[in-house]
Amino acid sequence: KNEVEQSPQNLTAQEGEFITINCSYSVGISALHWLQQHPGGGIVSLFMLSSGKKKHGRLIATINIQEKHSSLHITASHPRDSAVYICAPNAGGTSYGKLTFGQGTILTVHP
Amino acid sequence: ETGVTQSPTHLIKTRGQQVTLRCSSQSGHNTVSWYQQALGQGPQFIFQYYREEENGRGNFPPRFSGLQFPNYSSELNVNALELDDSALYLCASSLGLVGSSYEQYFGPGTRLTVT
């Protein structure tokens, strides 16, 4: 079983739709990153959170540490949101100092 | 504030050769992590350097080695290149150790092709 599971793996939406991407993990963590990767490779860190909820523009990230689950929401989706979204928990304890990456969710938003 | 930069952008090498990839951390960041991302897969952690010392390593053989310099720039060296080493190599810098909830800032990556 993978340490990090994302769902869905592929997501297609129409412009304006509300998007939710889910991430479940099995390791103990100190924080969790949501990353965005566009074709060509560059990765941008969207959020780093260790509890509760964070909001940035149309993006909202939530995390439930007890349930080992996080979600990324995009309100009023736009074609420029099309990218791969990756959940990456920071493992703590003896695994101190590394990110474990989910397999990514490929989001395509059509105009 | 200068972001994370990597060089070169693209590189083609032959099996058996050696390669050095470079990363310049964001200003003030003392921690750098290197990741390998094969085509169609998520990144895999290679190793992390904190204040010039290796601080954690993933499941990569010893022919993957690194250095971090006093100015916190970093190198990833790969010896005896294999075809499977073809990937996007990403570095990410942060202000402190990753486990201590410091956000990582990623560079654009170096795409290595081994023929």
Structure notes:
In chain A, a hairpin with a 4-residue loop joins β7 (59-64) and β8 (69-74). Chain A has strands at 4-7, 10-14, 19-25, 29-37, 43-49, 52-56, 59-64, 69-74, 83-91, 98-99, 105-110. Chain A has 111 residues and is an all-beta fold. Chain A contains no helices and eleven strands. In chain A, 0% of the residues lie in helices and 59% in strands. In chain A, the strands form two sheets. In chain A, strands 2, 4, 5, 9, 10 and 11 form a six-stranded mixed beta sheet that branches. In chain A, 34% of the residues are buried. Chain B is mainly beta. Chain B is built from no helices and eleven strands. Chain B has strands at residues 5-7, 10-13, 19-24, 31-37, 44-50, 53-57, 64-68, 74-78, 87-94, 105-106, 110-114. In chain B, the strands form two sheets. In chain B, strands 2, 4, 5, 6, 9, 10 and 11 form a seven-stranded mixed beta sheet that branches. In chain B, β4 and β5 (44-50) form a beta hairpin. Chain B is globular, with a radius of gyration of 13 Å. The termini of chain B are far apart. The mean pLDDT of chain B is 89.
In brief:
Chain A is mostly beta strands.
Secondary-structure topology with pairs:
The complex is a heterodimer of chains A (111) and B (115).
Chain A: E1 4-7, E2 10-14, E3 19-25, E4 29-37, E5 43-49, E6 52-56, E7 59-64, E8 69-74, E9 83-91, E10 98-99, E11 105-110
Parallel strand pairs in A: 2-11
Antiparallel strand pairs in A: 1-3, 3-8, 4-5, 4-9, 6-7, 7-8, 9-10, 9-11
Chain B: E1 5-7, E2 10-13, E3 19-24, E4 31-37, E5 44-50, E6 53-57, E7 64-68, E8 74-78, E9 87-94, E10 105-106, E11 110-114
Parallel strand pairs in B: 2-11
Antiparallel strand pairs in B: 1-3, 3-8, 4-5, 4-9, 5-6, 7-8, 9-10, 9-11
